[in-house]
Amino acid sequence: MKQQLKYLASLIALFVFFTQLTLADTDYNQAKKMLDAGEILSLEQILTKVSKHTPGRILELELEIDGEQPLYEIELIDAEGIVWELKVNAKTAKLIERKQDK
Predict the structure, then answer these.
(1) Cα–Cα distance between 86 and 84 in angstroms, integer?
(2) Which pLDDT does position 91 carry in this prediction?
(3) Does position 24 have pLDDT exceeding 50, yes or no?
(4) Where are the domains of the chain?
(5) pTM above the 0.85 mark?
(6) Is the pLDDT assigned to residue 51 strictly greater than 70?
(7) What is the pLDDT of residue 65?
(8) How confident is the model over 67-85, as a mean pLDDT?
(9) Res 69: pLDDT
(10) From the CB of residue 58, how many other CB atoms can be counted at a distance below 10 Å?
(11) Spatial CB neighbours of 56, under 8 Å, sequence gap ≥ 6
């Protein structure tokens, strides 16, 4: 019985792992298509502009489509250890929202 539970737990873990890989691959492909079509700026361009008003080390980054507007959601930590959450227009690099993570 214990062996069967371990086997089942392993199968569930593998399923979750591979599902996440597939989702990440899909997100990457979508972002690549949007970049190639000129619908969004490159991540390098976005981060260069963001670092001018909120310098720090990137902790998490996600591309989201909010209606028709592509957004980068960026979480970063500054030199003082403060974590910031930013929403940036992925097409223009305009900062939409900046808030301290609590």
Answers:
(1) 6
(2) 93
(3) no
(4) 1-39, 40-102
(5) no
(6) yes
(7) 81
(8) 91
(9) 87
(10) 13
(11) 76, 77, 78, 79, 84
10-14 long-range contacts, Cβ below 8 Å, gap at least 24? Answer: none
The token duo for 26 is 């899909």
Give the distance from CA 1 to its chain's centroid: 41
- The sheet carrying 95-100 orders its strands as 57-66, 69-77, 83-89, 95-100
Q: Which of 95, 61, 63, 65 is nearest to 75 (CA)?
A: 61
Look up tokens 């700026």; give the residue.
41
What are the DSSP calls for 60-90, one per residue? EEEEEEETTEEEEEEEEE-TTS-EEEEEEET
Q: Which residue has the tokens 């190639």?
A: 36
Given CATH 3.10.450.40, say whether it is the number of domain 40-102.
yes
